[in-house]
């Protein structure tokens, strides 16, 4: 009886740590789970290399918190973050795994709240905060991740 109990415990533990399997679309999906059993991440692979696809992350409540395309093992394209109601909170652009271009955060109604400009993974260029009416509240400039005068 103890062996069966131990075997069941090991099986349950392994089943909640990671899982590979086909999805309905025929693509391979790798999943990880929180210790409580809820889905933590889902990587929908485009090919058999395991380096290309879409990575989705979920919160403890089971809601999607972010999604991003992975190319050659690194973030590539726009990563989007969501609140528990599915509204977009932020967008970060990645090229070859590094932040590049305009990064934005949003008010719950979808209007832009703040933008930063990234170059080669560091803040470099204009950053602006916006009022709820859409007008610019503050504008600053960054150079190599530091505020410039």
Could you characterize what this model shows?
- There is one protein chain.
- By secondary structure, the chain is mostly beta strands.
- The protein has 1 helix and 14 strands, in the order H-E-E-E-E-E-E-E-E-E-E-E-E-E-E.
- It has one helix at 2-15, and strands spanning 18-22, 28-33, 39-45, 53-58, 64-71, 74-75, 77-82, 88-95, 98-99, 101-106, 112-119, 122-130, 136-143, 146-147.
- It starts with a helix and ends with a strand.
- 7% of the residues are buried.
- The model is unreliable at 1-19 (pLDDT under 50).
Summarize this structure briefly.
With 149 residues, the chain is mainly beta. The chain has one helix spanning 2-15, and strands spanning 18-22, 28-33, 39-45, 53-58, 64-71, 74-75, 77-82, 88-95, 98-99, 101-106, 112-119, 122-130, 136-143, 146-147.
Distance between the termini: 72 Å
Low-confidence stretches: 1-19
Specify the helix fraction band: under 10%
* Strand proportion: over 45%
Sheet having the most strands: 14 strands, antiparallel
What spatial form do the alpha-carbon principal axes imply? globular
* Secondary structural class: mainly beta
The mean pLDDT is: 87
Q: Descriptors for this entry?
A:
149 residues; mainly beta; 14 strands; single chain
Topology:
Blueprint: H1 2-15, E1 18-22, E2 28-33, E3 39-45, E4 53-58, E5 64-71, E6 74-75, E7 77-82, E8 88-95, E9 98-99, E10 101-106, E11 112-119, E12 122-130, E13 136-143, E14 146-147
Antiparallel strand pairs: 1-2, 2-3, 3-4, 4-5, 5-6, 5-7, 7-8, 8-9, 8-10, 10-11, 11-12, 12-13, 13-14
């Amino acid at each position: 009886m103890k062996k069966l109990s131990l075997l069941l415990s090991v099986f349950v533990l392994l089943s909640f740590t990671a899982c590979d399997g086909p999805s309905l679309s025929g693509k391979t999906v790798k999943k990880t789970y929180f210790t409580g059993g809820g889905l933590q991440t889902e990587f929908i692979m485009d090919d058999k290399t395991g380096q290309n696809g879409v990575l989705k992350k979920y919160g403890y409540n089971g809601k999607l918190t972010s999604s991003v395309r992975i190319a050659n093992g690194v973030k590539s394209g726009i990563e989007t973050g969501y609140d528990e109601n599915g509204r977009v909170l932020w967008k970060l652009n990645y090229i070859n795994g590094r932040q590049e271009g305009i990064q934005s955060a949003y008010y719950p109604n979808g209007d832009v709240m703040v933008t930063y400009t990234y170059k080669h993974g560091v803040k470099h260029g204009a950053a602006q905060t916006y009022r709820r009416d859409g007008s610019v509240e503050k504008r600053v400039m960054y150079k190599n991740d530091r505020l410039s005068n």
